[in-house]
Design goal:
mainly alpha; globular; 0% strand; AhpD-like
Length: 218
């Protein structure tokens, strides 16, 4: 797997868009959306980031981001800027097995070659959450190929880093981001974006989680 060693302007924009959407900071989200489009994100890619945020930050934040993006698009069109719409998600096969696909995606993100044969304690305690995770999050959302898995994980860790009190999920998804090919340097680049563009407190907290992830992987 090719390692992504740096965060280019496009990926940096994914981080800030996801972060400011999560905390509902409209004033900082507007320039982040503009920077993302200027850096090469398509309109559909930005929409996909904003939509995915509902799975982690909730519908109110996701919808707030979408409304903000609508305003940004209106402003850009009014000044004569024509942004690239980008591709839509590929059609989903009629025989798509959401349970199997979601289980496979989760295993891949976990760095596992095989789908676990035994359920984890939380899956046994609340089986329906496992169904939602597999069939909706890791199937319905991840099968949409507007964004790559790495881009989705980058948006996810940005969200979780600013959400607060989410160290467990952040630990998992930082590992997942690296399992999609993001290198240690790329992860440190992610922390740098948080530090310089989002907030020092969030960056320091995320850095602590990252160090634990890196220590475990070594």
């Amino acid at each position: 797997m090719n390692k992504e060693t740096t965060l280019d302007a496009r990926r940096q924009a994914i981080v800030t868009i996801a972060a400011f959407t999560t905390i509902g900071d409209v004033e900082r989200l507007r320039p982040a959306l503009n920077h993302g489009l200027d850096a090469g994100l398509t309109v559909n890619e930005v929409k996909e980031i904003l939509v995915q945020m509902y799975a982690y930050a909730g519908f109110p934040r996701s919808l707030g981001g979408i409304w903000t993006f609508m305003g940004v698009m209106d402003e850009r069109k009014a000044t004569g800027i024509e942004d690239k719409e980008g591709r839509d998600a590929s059609p989903i096969p009629a025989d798509f097995d959401r349970d199997a696909y979601g289980a496979r995606v989760r295993a891949d993100l976990s760095g596992l070659k095989e789908v676990p044969s035994e359920d984890a304690p939380y899956q046994q305690f609340a089986p329906i959450i496992d169904t939602f995770l597999k069939e909706h999050l890791f199937a319905d959302i991840f099968v949409r190929d507007v964004l790559t898995r790495q881009e989705r994980e980058l948006a996810t860790i940005a969200c979780l880093a600013v959400l607060g009190k989410a160290e467990g999920p952040l630990n998992f998804h930082m590992g997942a981001a690296m399992n999609t090919g993001l290198s240690e340097d790329g992860m440190r680049g992610f922390i740098k974006v948080l530090d310089t563009r989002v907030g020092k407190q969030q960056a320091d907290s995320a850095r602590s989680v990252l160090e634990a992830v890196l220590a475990a992987r070594r």
